């Protein structure tokens, strides 16, 4: 199978004619040829998007909404097909793609398709002198760059608000997981998205992605990916004064106080540690447990981790699939070795699974302090540490002890403490007695090195439009 770029409503080969293989992580076998696009392809996509902008930006919100709702319906009608593609491309369990990735992509398109019908802008009367109103206008071509861990979900998180608010876009999905983006392009034609409104250029980040970030005719970049790449993107975009949103890495704490509902805390923190093989930016990879329940928690958590079923992602009963790539597999295994060197104890897992593909056992590590590299650096795999704490202040200090600040999950029945600790943790999201619950109206993003800017809900509509003040003299 060979996929193409999607430019100006047509599927086209990369100008250079070069392709690279897309590997199924569960078998280590190639499953598709992917365009190795370069600046020339990005140029063509940006030109198509620029060309489509004047008409699309003047299309009524009602019509844009109708088209995006049709696209959401089509994704939903093809849910099973898309989930199978995503699972094969990414290595994640089919059941997870079906329950999480694809339904959330549908929800993203539905939310932004309807949000534009209700988005209001402000007006201010300056005494009797003037009327000021805020005009929110789309900016032009949005450059959208997304990672491989939740491929369609995160792509739709950007495409939906960008085009709903009247921009056109060029998206560059991760080179490791291009297949659902290709299917989305086909569905967009069926839904009636006009040619040039949504363009998809496949290829490597350092070549196609960088060309998109550097393009003069792309005034805004929405990027989700690693913190190191995010810094590179920011460095290229800043001198051109582009609007920039960066959703970056995390090293998220799960904090469990002794008064928590322990069964619920253990069940949910197992999910938050190992769902999608730990390859969700919001996964809780550092668990902190109040000392009085520490042994009990470690025993139950470890037992739960050992019971998780690893295997063929297409098997309905599989709970842990394959890591995204061989390079990532070695990175994760490297951190498990580092944990041992740093003095940690592996109480569950710790090894590569003996089968084709890139599988690592759910791994639980104890005995490491917060200053260890294993607790400081994002591993982005099925590896979690558990550390005891003695009091609330220490729990907050431990939670805040990294450069990241994406999310946190906190477990207690004490309402006052829950609010106090939530306010004290430096992160963009804090879940209390839950994890990964989502309301699309809330702002989403990271603190510290986890990102700049907020997306989600009306925040995304504001990111993808520019506010202009119009001042009218009265009298
Ligand atoms: P990367 O930063 O490696 O890549 C992200 C995207 O950027 C990919 O499409 C990549 O292309 C592209 N890219 C790479 N280099 C450049 C460049 N110089 N210029 C422009 N684009 C470039 O991240 P991963 O794909 O490895 O994703 C995992 C990371 O994403 C983790 O750190 C995770 O925490 C983070 N993440 C953050 C989320 C959040 O909401 N905060 C959500 C999900 C993930 P290519 O794949 O070809 O290299």
Topology, element by element:
Layout: E1 5-7, E2 10-12, E3 19-24, E4 29-35, H1 39-58, H2 61-77, H3 79-90, H4 94-118, E5 123-126, E6 130-138, E7 141-145, H5 151-164, E8 168-172, H6 179-191, E9 198-200, H7 205-214, E10 220-224, H8 227-237, E11 243-247, E12 252-256, H9 262-274, E13 284-290, H10 291-307, H11 326-341, E14 345-348, E15 363-366, H12 373-376, E16 383-389, H13 392-399, E17 404-405, E18 407-411, H14 415-424, E19 429-432, E20 447-448, E21 451-452, H15 457-463, E22 465-473
Parallel strand pairs: 7-8, 7-10, 8-9, 10-11, 12-13, 12-18, 13-16, 15-16, 18-19
Antiparallel strand pairs: 1-2, 3-4, 5-6, 6-22, 11-21, 14-15, 17-20
Helix pairs in contact: 1-7, 2-4, 2-6, 3-4, 4-5, 9-10
The chain binds NADPH dihydro-nicotinamide-adenine-dinucleotide phosphate.
Question: What CATH architecture of the largest domain would you give?
Answer: 3-Layer(aba) Sandwich
Shape: globular
For the record, what is the CATH homologous superfamily label of the largest domain?
Aldehyde Dehydrogenase, Chain A, domain 1
> Describe the biggest sheet?
7 strands, mixed
Number of helical regions: 15
* Hetero compounds: NADPH dihydro-nicotinamide-adenine-dinucleotide phosphate
Low-confidence stretches: none
Count of all domains: 2
Give the helix proportion (percent range): 40-55%
Straight-line N-to-C gap: 68 Å
Please state the CA-atom Rg, rounded to the nearest Å.
23 Å
CATH topology category name of the largest domain: Aldehyde Dehydrogenase, Chain A, domain 1
Please report the first level of CATH classification, the CATH class of the largest domain: Alpha Beta
Look at the helices and sheets and give the structural class.
alpha/beta
Strand order of the largest sheet: 14-15-16-13-12-18-19
């Amino acid at each position: 199978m060979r996929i193409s770029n999607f430019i100006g409503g047509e599927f086209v080969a990369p100008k250079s004619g070069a392709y690279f293989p897309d590997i199924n992580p569960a078998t280590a076998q190639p499953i598709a040829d992917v365009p190795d696009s370069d600046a020339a392809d990005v140029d063509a996509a940006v030109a198509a998007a620029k060309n489509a902008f004047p008409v699309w930006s003047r299309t009524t919100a009602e019509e844009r909404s109708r088209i995006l709702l049709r696209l959401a319906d089509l994704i939903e009608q093809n849910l099973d097909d898309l989930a199978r593609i995503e699972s094969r491309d990414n290595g994640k369990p089919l059941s997870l793609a079906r329950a999480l990735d694809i339904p959330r992509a549908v929800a993203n398109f539905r939310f932004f398709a309807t949000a534009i019908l209700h988005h209001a802008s402000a007006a201010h009367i300056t005494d009797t002198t003037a009327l000021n109103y805020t005009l929110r206008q789309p900016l032009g071509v949005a450059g959208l760059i997304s990672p491989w861990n939740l491929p369609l979900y995160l792509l739709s998180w950007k495409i939906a608000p960008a085009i709903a608010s009247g921009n056109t876009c060029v998206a560059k999905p991760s080179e490791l997981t291009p297949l659902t983006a290709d299917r989305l392009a086909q569905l967009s034609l069926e839904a009636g998205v006009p040619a040039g409104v949504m363009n998809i250029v496949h290829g490597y980040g350092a070549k196609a992605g960088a060309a998109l970030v550097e393009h003069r005719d792309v005034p805004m970049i929405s990027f989700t990916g690693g913190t190191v790449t995010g810094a590179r993107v920011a460095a290229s975009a800043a001198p051109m004064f582009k609007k920039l949103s960066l959703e970056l890495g995390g090293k998220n704490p799960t904090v469990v106080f002794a008064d928590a509902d322990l069964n619920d805390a253990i069940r949910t923190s197992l999910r938050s540690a190992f769902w999608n093989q730990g390859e969700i930016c919001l996964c809780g990879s550092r668990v902190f447990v109040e000392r009085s329940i520490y042994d009990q928690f470690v025993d139950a958590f470890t037992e739960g981790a050992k019971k998780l079923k690893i295997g063929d992602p297409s098997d309905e009963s599989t709970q842990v699939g394959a890591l995204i790539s061989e390079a990532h597999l070695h990175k994760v295994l490297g951190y498990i070795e580092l944990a041992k060197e740093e003095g940690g104890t592996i109480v569950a897992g710790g090894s590569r699974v003996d089968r084709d593909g890139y599988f690592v056992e759910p791994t639980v590590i104890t005995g490491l302090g917060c200053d260890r590299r294993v607790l400081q650096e994002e591993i982005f795999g099925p590896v979690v540490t558990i550390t005891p704490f003695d009091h609330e202040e220490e729990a907050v200090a431990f939670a805040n002890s990294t450069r990241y600040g994406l999310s946190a999950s906190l477990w207690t029945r004490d309402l006052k403490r829950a609010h106090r600790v939530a306010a004290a943790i430096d992160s963009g999201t804090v879940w209390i007695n839950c994890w990964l619950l989502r309301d699309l109206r809330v702002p989403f993003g990271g603190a510290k090195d986890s990102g700049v800017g907020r997306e989600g809900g009306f925040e995304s509509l504001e990111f993808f439009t520019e506010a202009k003040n119009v001042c009218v003299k009265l009298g």
